[in-house]
Amino acid sequence: MEPIKIMPCLDMKEGRVVKGINFVNIRDAGDPVENAAFYEKEGADELAMLDIAATLENRKTRLEWVKSVSSVIQIPLTVGGGISSMEDIELVFKAGASRVSMNSAAVQNPDLVRQAARTYGSQKITVAIDGKRNPQMPSGFELVVSGGTRPVGKDAVQWAGQCQDLGAGVILPTSMDGDGTRAGYDLEFTRAISDAVSLPVIASGGAGELEHFYEGVVRGGAQILLAASVFHYRTLSIRQVKEYLKSRGLPVL
User: Is 88 a residue of the active site?
Assistant: First the structure.
């Protein structure tokens, strides 16, 4: 088994790290540059930075945020939010990102995933998939775009398989039902996606205690564990999470 990676996530709005619950009720969680440097020092394996309002506000990712954060860390940085063209992807890489994450744009233009993977290599392309429970869908999960505001009538798990075929290198599923709740990852959703693809899957949305991280791997099938609230508000440290996973027999870096 490959070592499990821990990935704090900086959700960005108006130049600050923020955190919401179920994609709403947003509150401040600090300075992005300070947080990024702190997490690398703490032992984070990767970092995600998502411009959560970019698509809704119909604008591009703020490149100055990417530059300032990438300048203080050595670990891989995945950047998402408002990335909708090959030009956007190139600019984000030039600003210092190691990977890009696409969500709404990939759904609207699946060929963008194919083009990006061909140009930059699959390992640099992450597709983020926001899902919401809907019993009408074959898997029970519907794909939602535009920052969780628009259901698209498409099965989220089938879309993950399609993304793999298009050349994506990593899948980042977030359950809207679990986001920010600290009630644990949506294991059913994470497992459905990890069973549908052979790519690394990032568990995201809802981690609140040590056991949740373990379950994300063992029951959810994830290789990378993303969390925000528990790290931003210092409920848990990255070191604590890694030591716990190690004590439960999982390999960590």
Answer: no
